[in-house]
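Anyone? Bumping this.
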Amino acid sequence: MSVTELATPPPAPPEPPPALTGRGHDKTPREYAFRAILLACLGVGVVFLVVLLAYVLIEGWPRLDLDLFRNQASQLSPATAGAQAAILGTLWLMALTALIILPVGVLAAIYLEEYGDKNRWYNRLIELNIQNLAAVPSVVYGILGLGLIVRGPLDLGPVLLAGAIILALLVLPVVIISSREAIRAVPDSLRDGSLALGATRWQTIWKTILPNSIPGIATGAILALSRAIGEAAPLIVIGVAGFVTFNPASLTDRFTALPIQIYSYASRPQEDFIILSSALIVVLLAVLLVMNSAAIFIRNKYQRRW
Amino acid sequence: MADSHTMGVRTMSESDAAHASGTTPVAPPRPEHEDSPREHKPLDPLISVEKLNIFYGDFHAVRDVHMLIGRNDITALIGPSGCGKSTVIRCFDRMNDLIPTARVEGKVLFHGQDLYARDVDPIEVRRRVGMVFQKPNPFPKSIFDNVAYGPKVTGMKLSKSAMADRVEHALVAAALWDEVKDKLDQNGLSLSGGQQQRLCIARAIATNPEVILMDEPCSALDPIATAKIEDLMRDLVTEFTIIIVTHNMQQAARVSDRTAFFTANVDDKGSRYGQLVEYDLTSKIFTNPEDQRTEDYISGRFG
């Protein structure tokens, strides 16, 4: 044995590899309990919704027929009464509301996103107020509409146009906010690309930003409309009648809408009217479902990755 | 005006003079270009930058840049991150205007006209000076519409066939035509990254600019796509003046005629700012720089 070999200490025994086995940190009672609570919270929402839907569907089933669409409301013959005027009134309201909120909401959003200098106090104030307006209860819009539109300066009376303006005011903040998000989601690289080619701001917005934000804008507008479609409070406040047996034919006709018709039928004592109102609820929910599906469809179809 | 030019680019004029007087030229960095005449071409000024200072709010980002940019040259701006080279290139088409807090002092003379004069329309500037960005940013439109976008927005009233010709010409010039001629109606985003970047170059060419700015055009591309773009730049420079920002020193050495080296300094108040250190023929910068900081940077001792 040489001297160097003697001087070298014997090699240390190899360390055992780190243990990777175990009972599972993810399988403690705490972890299970936490997951159970999460599931329970989810359950509360889903179970109530399912029960509600099932109840309305079962309750309204006997009257889910074409008479709903064919016949007008009736106080005398609930077995065949329909709600043609209310269904048409709701469709009119939706169309008019959409006509108001789309241009106004999108243009307001374009101003705030593309032109408004976010460092200016008045733009920040507007922004803050739009957020607040989105949270104002609908009945307040009803009172505002009653004072300014139905009576007061505009003095339109409780007609379709008045109802549509009020519903439009109610959902406009939501449309503006969702349109802004859609516009903001268009990447700056596209903006820069367009401007660098010598496009004006208007050309950039019109040819690049809007076409790429339309899916988001449409989704937001549809969801806003589906909120408006279910609103009864502002319409009741402005004095929309619960019992109308003629179809609206122009903007200045008096009208009724599905939520009000449902409310009116549901508040009658006879069983047949209760069934009728359940059937109308199913109709309203079906329309809502269709609109929300359309929104989801549009969103998924045009989803882009840049 | 002539005086301030010479002052601003003293090193440049000296080395130009050296070449003119027949001093041994420095070996070009790429052997296949050894006999390339670009190394000897005298500078024919198209853009003159005089005492350029750029601020973001209170932050003085770039200080006292003087430089002359030659017509039909590829001018590379190199330097470490934060040295202000991207900020400087965005002055040439007034893209800095889009940053609300940005402020530019000094002059950027293009054909002797100050781009920052009060009566200059930035949109008109951008129609004469095109730009290609770091990340390919084709519009989510067809390949054809991507290229036709510029001519349309700049108000060129072209017939259908004239527009088709222009689109074809731009795609040919961008060396993309053969790859896309059968699928012009496909979405520009369906192309590969390198093709997308060449589409963006075609898009810029289609408006007939004099200058094309390229802000790190290859940093998102693989080496093969990068090589294609570099070859393309050498082709394009016969028609256009190209200014390129690049992080890649080999790229600057390979493609550019002249190179400006910027660095990030810290002033006595601790604030970082960008500064032009040295500007000269690329061959000179990469083989025999005057400034120690340039030497350190190109030899990899810094940044």
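Late reply, but here is one note on the structure posted above: Chain A touches chain B at residues 117, 119, 187, 189-200, 203, 207-208, 212, 304, 306 (CB under 8 Å).
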